[in-house]
Amino acid sequence: MDWNEVLREVCVLECTGSPIEVTGVQYDSRRVVRGDAFIAMRGGSADGNRYIDAVIAQGAVAVVTDSRDAYAKLRREHPEVAAALVERGRRALAEVSSAVMGHPQKKLALSGVTGTNGKTTTAFLLEAMLRSVGRWCVLIGTIETHIGDEIRVSPHTTPESRDVLALFADGVRVGASEAVMEMSSHALEQERVWGLPVEVAIFTNLTQDHLDYHGTMEGYFAAKARLFDGVGAPPPRVAVINTDDVYGERLAAGIERSQVVRYGMEGKGDFVAQDVRMRAGETRFRMVTPHGVVEMRSPLTGRVNVYNLLGASAAAWARGLTLDEIARGAEAGTQVPGRFEVVPSTNDVTVVVDYAHTDDALRNLISLARELVKERGGRVITLFGCGGDRDRTKRPRMGTAAGEGSDLVVLTSDNPRSEEPMAIIEEALAGVKETGTKCIVEEDRAEAIEIAIRAARAGDIVLIAGKGHEKVQILKGGTVPFDDVAVASSVLKEIA
């Protein structure tokens, strides 16, 4: 694409025009090839402006920078390279990428999902409902990315705008008409979703998490709320909000430019669940809406998944599906990896791997497990850990949540990163001790999983919480392969 045409779509402070052809866009200097435009932007831990000389040597023909000093140096030392100075690098990344890639975001109806818990499952469910009526989708989320039938690894919950738009472009090429994205609070605040026109926005809930980044719950809430204001784009046409959640109610009350669709289980809202019946591997309820009533059945289990089903259903309705189509799509939905994932076993013990990594999510998980073992008189054994280099204040609260609901707690390591694992464990252990519940401490996560499973008797349920779908353990010395499901499966086979 002609560089002068690209510049017409970018908010620049200064620029040098040039009739050059730009064939790609990069923000990672390692990926630059001849013909690319490089967006040099300052981030939290790195500054892309340090790599300008390197990318020019690799063949970059245009550079956009958010540094006045770097721009002056470019003009002085590399007059042959097209240059532009911008105020905000991430916004420019989105604007340049959109122009060069042919605005793929305008060719897809985008649904964005945000909230502390339930984003991944809600996104999977909405995609399943859309696909059940023949709509080809792009799905971008924590676990994996879908381009039609193709499945790719997701390195981040919400990638940088350039990578999002590249995925959208791939989706358009295979005939996709819909996109479903998880939008994290970090991505919303950092404007990684700048300029994306969201058709339907979903808010699942808000509980304490990521305060190491946002500082306060108010800061965390404000970041989530940006989705409903529009991030460099108009507000969404429809806002789907869980108003059983106190922050959801507050969010809904402040929305003026979108149609608000409320959902919940407490007798209020537009999409409401009644007569909920649950057992392992199945949830049924009656969904009451202003548009009619439909019986819902899903292979997902638990109260939290009733909320996820309601949110996805309301969003699917906003995308034009009938209630009967929504119900059929929900029933066809499959297990989401690492979300109440039952590990296959021939033993009379249920082992579940789940991503629960906040005190609220852990409490919900344990509550569901308690319901499932109640009839058989079984116990709940909960294994968990807390991540390093993250919000320390939630560690004792997670310990309290585990101790209050469980018959036995196994406390272990979970991505300690740069911290000492035992120091993290001690902070969580303080919360467990307050409850008086028996607790076994084992730093080695594989050993801890074996201890938890071998402690179980017939009728018990073992919850392995925190990592879910993750396939690595992040340690001070680096990242090593680790899969809770694989470790648990190996132990179960050995016992059998």
Automatic annotation (TrEMBL):
<protein>
    <recommendedName>
        <fullName>UDP-N-acetylmuramoyl-L-alanyl-D-glutamate--2,6-diaminopimelate ligase</fullName>
        <ecNumber>6.3.2.13</ecNumber>
    </recommendedName>
</protein>
<feature type="binding site">
    <location>
        <position position="184"/>
    </location>
    <ligand>
        <name>UDP-N-acetyl-alpha-D-muramoyl-L-alanyl-D-glutamate</name>
    </ligand>
</feature>
<keyword id="KW-0067">ATP-binding</keyword>
<feature type="binding site">
    <location>
        <position position="29"/>
    </location>
    <ligand>
        <name>UDP-N-acetyl-alpha-D-muramoyl-L-alanyl-D-glutamate</name>
    </ligand>
</feature>
<dbReference type="InterPro" id="IPR013221">
    <property type="entry name" value="Mur_ligase_cen"/>
</dbReference>
<keyword id="KW-0460">Magnesium</keyword>
<dbReference type="InterPro" id="IPR004101">
    <property type="entry name" value="Mur_ligase_C"/>
</dbReference>
<keyword id="KW-0436">Ligase</keyword>
<feature type="domain" description="Mur ligase N-terminal catalytic">
    <location>
        <begin position="21"/>
        <end position="88"/>
    </location>
</feature>
<feature type="binding site">
    <location>
        <position position="466"/>
    </location>
    <ligand>
        <name>meso-2,6-diaminopimelate</name>
    </ligand>
</feature>
<keyword id="KW-0132">Cell division</keyword>
<keyword id="KW-0133">Cell shape</keyword>
<keyword id="KW-0573">Peptidoglycan synthesis</keyword>
<dbReference type="GO" id="GO:0000287">
    <property type="term" value="F:magnesium ion binding"/>
</dbReference>
<feature type="binding site">
    <location>
        <position position="390"/>
    </location>
    <ligand>
        <name>meso-2,6-diaminopimelate</name>
    </ligand>
</feature>
<comment type="pathway">
    <text>Cell wall biogenesis; peptidoglycan biosynthesis.</text>
</comment>
<dbReference type="InterPro" id="IPR036565">
    <property type="entry name" value="Mur-like_cat_sf"/>
</dbReference>
<feature type="binding site">
    <location>
        <position position="470"/>
    </location>
    <ligand>
        <name>meso-2,6-diaminopimelate</name>
    </ligand>
</feature>
<feature type="binding site">
    <location>
        <begin position="414"/>
        <end position="417"/>
    </location>
    <ligand>
        <name>meso-2,6-diaminopimelate</name>
    </ligand>
</feature>
<keyword id="KW-0547">Nucleotide-binding</keyword>
<dbReference type="InterPro" id="IPR005761">
    <property type="entry name" value="UDP-N-AcMur-Glu-dNH2Pim_ligase"/>
</dbReference>
<feature type="modified residue" description="N6-carboxylysine">
    <location>
        <position position="224"/>
    </location>
</feature>
<dbReference type="GO" id="GO:0051301">
    <property type="term" value="P:cell division"/>
</dbReference>
<feature type="binding site">
    <location>
        <position position="192"/>
    </location>
    <ligand>
        <name>UDP-N-acetyl-alpha-D-muramoyl-L-alanyl-D-glutamate</name>
    </ligand>
</feature>
<dbReference type="GO" id="GO:0005737">
    <property type="term" value="C:cytoplasm"/>
</dbReference>
<feature type="binding site">
    <location>
        <position position="190"/>
    </location>
    <ligand>
        <name>UDP-N-acetyl-alpha-D-muramoyl-L-alanyl-D-glutamate</name>
    </ligand>
</feature>
<keyword id="KW-0131">Cell cycle</keyword>
<feature type="binding site">
    <location>
        <begin position="115"/>
        <end position="121"/>
    </location>
    <ligand>
        <name>ATP</name>
    </ligand>
</feature>
<keyword id="KW-0963">Cytoplasm</keyword>
<feature type="domain" description="Mur ligase central">
    <location>
        <begin position="113"/>
        <end position="316"/>
    </location>
</feature>
<feature type="short sequence motif" description="Meso-diaminopimelate recognition motif">
    <location>
        <begin position="414"/>
        <end position="417"/>
    </location>
</feature>
<feature type="binding site">
    <location>
        <begin position="157"/>
        <end position="158"/>
    </location>
    <ligand>
        <name>UDP-N-acetyl-alpha-D-muramoyl-L-alanyl-D-glutamate</name>
    </ligand>
</feature>
<dbReference type="InterPro" id="IPR000713">
    <property type="entry name" value="Mur_ligase_N"/>
</dbReference>
<dbReference type="InterPro" id="IPR036615">
    <property type="entry name" value="Mur_ligase_C_dom_sf"/>
</dbReference>
<dbReference type="Pfam" id="PF08245">
    <property type="entry name" value="Mur_ligase_M"/>
</dbReference>
<comment type="function">
    <text>Catalyzes the addition of meso-diaminopimelic acid to the nucleotide precursor UDP-N-acetylmuramoyl-L-alanyl-D-glutamate (UMAG) in the biosynthesis of bacterial cell-wall peptidoglycan.</text>
</comment>
<dbReference type="InterPro" id="IPR035911">
    <property type="entry name" value="MurE/MurF_N"/>
</dbReference>
<comment type="similarity">
    <text>Belongs to the MurCDEF family. MurE subfamily.</text>
</comment>
<dbReference type="GO" id="GO:0005524">
    <property type="term" value="F:ATP binding"/>
</dbReference>
<feature type="domain" description="Mur ligase C-terminal">
    <location>
        <begin position="338"/>
        <end position="468"/>
    </location>
</feature>
<dbReference type="GO" id="GO:0008360">
    <property type="term" value="P:regulation of cell shape"/>
</dbReference>
<dbReference type="Pfam" id="PF02875">
    <property type="entry name" value="Mur_ligase_C"/>
</dbReference>
